[in-house]
């Protein structure tokens, strides 16, 4: 088990770089085909890759009873993922990769503060501090200048 926070910070950075490449590639694909085809392609390829991995890794499948016990809103990630991929594909050709990414980051930070503050979706309640508000305002200002 990895104990160091550094490893997790590094993993998040790699994920951030990966999603930025993903956004750029998906936006380009959508501009050459269509948003609907591109979204289909992204999820098809993802499905084709994860299926063999499930079997190779011997990941246990939940039972029907386990699935019934999971709160409904836990299943909405697939829908929000679909919305995310489609809307980014539509936006990148019009706004560019940098501005789209900046808008994504700021919107994620603002909504994550709300989720934390009210303990939504099972999150632990965390209070919004003046530092978090100031950091968010500075990021919003940064997005404004990136979009100019």
UniProtKB/TrEMBL annotation:
<feature type="transmembrane region" description="Helical">
    <location>
        <begin position="72"/>
        <end position="90"/>
    </location>
</feature>
<keyword id="KW-0472">Membrane</keyword>
<feature type="transmembrane region" description="Helical">
    <location>
        <begin position="97"/>
        <end position="115"/>
    </location>
</feature>
<feature type="transmembrane region" description="Helical">
    <location>
        <begin position="127"/>
        <end position="147"/>
    </location>
</feature>
<protein>
    <recommendedName>
        <fullName>DMT family transporter</fullName>
    </recommendedName>
</protein>
<feature type="transmembrane region" description="Helical">
    <location>
        <begin position="37"/>
        <end position="56"/>
    </location>
</feature>
<dbReference type="InterPro" id="IPR006750">
    <property type="entry name" value="YdcZ"/>
</dbReference>
<keyword id="KW-1133">Transmembrane helix</keyword>
<feature type="transmembrane region" description="Helical">
    <location>
        <begin position="6"/>
        <end position="25"/>
    </location>
</feature>
<dbReference type="GO" id="GO:0005886">
    <property type="term" value="C:plasma membrane"/>
</dbReference>
<dbReference type="Pfam" id="PF04657">
    <property type="entry name" value="DMT_YdcZ"/>
</dbReference>
<keyword id="KW-0812">Transmembrane</keyword>
């Amino acid at each position: 088990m990895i104990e160091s926070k550094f490893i997790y910070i590094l993993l998040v950075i790699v994920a951030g770089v990966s999603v930025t490449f993903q956004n750029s590639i998906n936006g380009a694909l959508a501009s050459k085909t269509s948003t609907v085809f591109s979204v289909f392609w992204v999820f098809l390829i993802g499905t084709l890759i994860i299926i063999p991995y499930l079997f190779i890794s011997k990941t246990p499948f939940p039972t029907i009873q386990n699935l019934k016990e999971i709160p409904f809103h836990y299943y909405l990630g697939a829908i929000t993922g679909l919305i995310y991929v489609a809307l980014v594909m539509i936006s990148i050709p019009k706004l560019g990769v940098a501005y789209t990414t900046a808008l994504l980051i700021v919107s994620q930070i603002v909504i994550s503060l709300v989720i934390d503050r009210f303990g939504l979706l099972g999150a632990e309640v965390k209070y919004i501090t003046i530092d978090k508000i100031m950091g968010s305002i500075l990021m919003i200002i940064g997005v404004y200048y990136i979009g100019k």
